């Protein structure tokens, strides 16, 4: 060491490290990361969420460990989203928003980052309730490795304010991310629409717990300007830089998920042309949903098409490839929310008009997946046969939202808990963890009770027991 002429500091520098990460490159990474991965998508969004609300049914004929449509306490599935989110997604996202906050040249990047942060964190809080938020992702910024859990009502208040401020922050004269923005290609007008559309989504989440605030945010969102057509859909088109669609990854690698009999039967009862797009039966037989709650034994004895899964409707493989588009938010959702706002008297638009636009948009949305969407005549015939009935408006809007968000599983599960349509018959599988009721949230990771015990226990003291039946703040009874 005495004979060495080089500075030790220089020797310790990594020649391959990026000293000043370009914000555009990091923006792309953040947008792709926010999709999540196969691990948490398969276990939480599909295995629990979509299966619990009977869009999917799940029978693993090898291990019989799949929990979602039977409400089995398989903890590895429950905590998967939180497990991956705080290890991976939150760090880059928080760093990106922080490092662009005080850079006047990066004002548009920062505004996009703030919206992406809301999209990302609201997914997690909707699944678990109270979560690390204000101190999340700060380990590498401030050495805070044990973040406090924020109350969900405080998280929602901040997220709504973030959306409002981000929408007003955009500056057409500042640097534009262009193609580095893989969602809208730098189109500021579309980002503003997404911000207000997300505000509409989050505002309606408050309807059970604070109707006055819910109405206020809904009105503010509509006045700000929400999505107006299919061009405004917030999506990542296909595989980019090796990052693939996590829903596609889940279906490509897992052969046990099927369309739920509840979902297929609803479409058949309504003459829904989407069924021919969504359903693929490997044996070549007719569309046949798989009843929820079956295991390998009861599948063989009670399955309406026998014990072989090839006789049941799989999700059309064309819709769930690794390079399929990933939807953050669809235009159809916005139209159904506008219809609901009109029914509630919070908006002077016509509920039936927005309901019809929502149905048309939901069916046309499948064209993004490279398949032939239902024809105009099919869609209009469907609307003629299924017109909005004022006395049943909320139920019909809820059912259509459930169908339209089939490939947006986190949102589908959250909105069902909020509005509770369609009316579902829960499964009472032997030994289930919910007493035969549909799960209202997922459980925190076991490791949190070891490494962050003080804060996770404070969350439980505020929110309620760490069980599947404890409701998150906005999901009041």
Write a structural description.
With 477 residues, the protein is mainly alpha-helical. It has one domain: Serine Threonine Protein Phosphatase 5, Tetratricopeptide repeat (Alpha Horseshoe), CATH 1.25.40.390. It contains 21 helices and eight strands. Strands 1-5 form a two-stranded antiparallel sheet. Strands 2-3 form a two-stranded antiparallel sheet. The longest helix is centred in the first third of the chain and has 22 residues. The chain is globular and about 65 Å long. This is SusD/RagB family nutrient-binding outer membrane lipoprotein.
What are the salient characteristics of this protein?
477 residues, Serine Threonine Protein Phosphatase 5, Tetratricopeptide repeat, two-stranded antiparallel sheet, 21 helices, disordered N terminus, lipoprotein, SusD/RagB family nutrient-binding outer membrane lipoprotein, SusD-like_2, TPR-like_helical_dom_sf
Summary, kept brief:
The protein is mostly helical and 477 residues long. It has 21 helices and eight strands.
Record field, number of beta strands: 8
Strand residue percentage? under 5%
- So, CATH architecture? Alpha Horseshoe
Please tell me how large the radius of gyration is.
23 Å
Summarize the main sheet.
2 strands, antiparallel
How many separate helices? 21
From N to C, what is the helix and strand string?
Answer: HHHEHHHEHEHHHEHEHHEHEEHHHHHHH
Secondary-structure content class: mainly alpha
Shape: globular
CATH class membership: Mainly Alpha
Percentage of residues in helical conformation: 40-55%
Keywords: Lipoprotein
InterPro entries: SusD-like_2, TPR-like_helical_dom_sf
Protein name: SusD/RagB family nutrient-binding outer membrane lipoprotein
């Amino acid at each position: 060491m005495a004979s060495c002429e080089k500075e030790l500091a220089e020797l310790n520098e990594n020649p391959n490290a990026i000293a000043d990460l370009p914000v555009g490159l990091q923006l792309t990474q953040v947008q792709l990361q926010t999709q999540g991965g196969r691990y948490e998508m398969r276990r939480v969004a599909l295995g629990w969420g979509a299966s619990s609300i009977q869009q999917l049914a799940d029978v693993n004929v090898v291990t019989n460990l799949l929990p979602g449509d039977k409400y089995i306490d398989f903890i590895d599935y429950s905590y998967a989203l939180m497990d991956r989110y705080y290890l991976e997604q939150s760090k880059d996202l928080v760093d990106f928003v922080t490092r662009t906050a005080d850079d006047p040249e990066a004002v548009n990047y920062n505004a996009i980052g703030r919206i992406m942060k809301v999209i990302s964190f609201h997914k997690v809080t909707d699944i678990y309730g109270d979560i690390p938020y204000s101190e999340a992702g700060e380990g590498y910024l401030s050495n805070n490795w044990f973040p406090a859990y924020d109350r969900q009502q405080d998280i929602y208040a901040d997220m709504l304010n973030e959306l409002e401020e981000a929408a007003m922050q955009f500056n057409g004269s500042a640097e534009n991310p262009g193609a580095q923005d893989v969602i809208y290609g730098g189109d500021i007008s579309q980002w503003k629409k997404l911000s207000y559309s997300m505000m509409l989504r989050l505002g309606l989440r408050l309807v059970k717990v604070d109707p006055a605030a819910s109405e206020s945010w809904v009105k503010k969102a509509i006045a700000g300007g929400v999505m107006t057509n299919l061009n405004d859909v917030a999506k990542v088109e296909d595989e980019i830089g090796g990052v693939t669609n996590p829903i596609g990854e889940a279906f490509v690698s897992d052969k046990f998920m099927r369309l739920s009999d509840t979902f297929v039967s609803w479409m058949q009862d309504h003459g829904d042309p989407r069924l021919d797009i969504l359903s693929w039966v490997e044996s070549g037989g007719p569309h046949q949903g798989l009843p929820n709650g079956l295991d390998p034994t009861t599948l063989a004895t009670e399955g309406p098409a026998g014990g072989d899964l090839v006789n049941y409707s799989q999700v059309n493989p064309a819709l769930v490839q690794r390079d399929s588009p990933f939807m953050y938010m669809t235009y159809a959702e916005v139209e159904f929310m506008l219809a609901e706002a009109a029914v509630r008297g919070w908006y002077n638009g016509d509920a039936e008009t927005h309901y019809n636009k929502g149905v048309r948009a939901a069916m046309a949305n499948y064209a993004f997946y490279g398949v032939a969407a239902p024809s105009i005549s099919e869609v209009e015939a469907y609307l003629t046969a299924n017109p909005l009935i004022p006395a049943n408006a909320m139920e019909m809007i809820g059912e259509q939202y459930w169908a339209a968000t089939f490939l947006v599983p986190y949102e589908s599960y959250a909105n069902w808990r909020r509005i509770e349509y369609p009316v579902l018959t829960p499964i009472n599988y032997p030994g289930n963890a919910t007493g035969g009721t549909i799960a209202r949230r997922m459980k925190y990771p076991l490791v949190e009770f070891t490494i962050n015990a003080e804060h996770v226990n404070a969350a439980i003291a505020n929110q309620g027991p760490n069980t599947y039946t404890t409701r998150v703040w906005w999901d009041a009874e």
